[in-house]
Amino acid sequence: MVLSPTMFERMGWSGVAAATPQILLYGGGFFFASAIAYQFLLTPGASTAAVATAASTAVLQILVYGGALLYVFSKSAKFSLFKPAEEMVYISLDEEGRTKGKAAIDVVGSQAGKSGGSVLQQVLLLLCGGAIAGQLPAMVAVYMVISHAWLRAGA
Question: How is this protein positioned relative to the membrane (predicted)?
Fold first, then answer.
């Protein structure tokens, strides 16, 4: 947050607004690629040696910490960069447009996105027989498409 005024001066509105989707697109892409690699290559089986199981557990721990770090960075970028950039859009509007636009985006858009994500996850869970691991590739594909569209929309 301390650096955001400097970032707005150097990168401009579109550069700062694009920081959050870039963090999510590239960081999430790396995280999900690692998760899929872990799921299909390193998941210990019943006849796996103890050394391989220990290595798999260490990789899983790194993956969990990496996911937590991505979450912290994405929320930090959202609230210190993206939200101020979003609020700057409303400056040029009149009072009525500002109120209606903010309500539409904050109430309708936000809730529709959350609801749509929840419905998608439930449908994928039903299609995969309740296995979260089975829905991972489809979730990654949707995640990457949405992140890429968000990045393009801010440009």
Answer: Multi-pass membrane protein
Tokens 């939200």 -> residue: 83
Taking only the tens place, the pLDDT of each residue in 21-52 is: 999 999 999 998 888 888 877 665 544 566 56
Nearest to 154 by CA among 55, 12, 30, 33: 12
**Dihedral of the CA atoms 137, 139, 144, 147 (nearest 10)?**
-170
CA 102/CA 115 separation, integer angstroms? 19
Q: Which of 107, 114, 138, 113 is nearest to 124 (CA)?
A: 138
Residue pair 44/52 in contact by the 8 Å Cβ criterion: yes
Residues 6+ apart with CB under 8 A from 140: 32, 33, 36
23 Cβ contact list (under 8 Å, min separation 6): 70, 73, 74, 77
Quote the percentage of the chain above a pLDDT of 70: 91
The two tokens of residue 143 are 């995640």
Q: Among residues 111, 116, 34, which one has the least CA distance to residue 70?
A: 34
> What is the rounded distance in angstroms from the CA atom of residue 87 to the CA atom of residue 107?
15
What CA–CA distance (Å, rounded) separates 31 from 139?
13
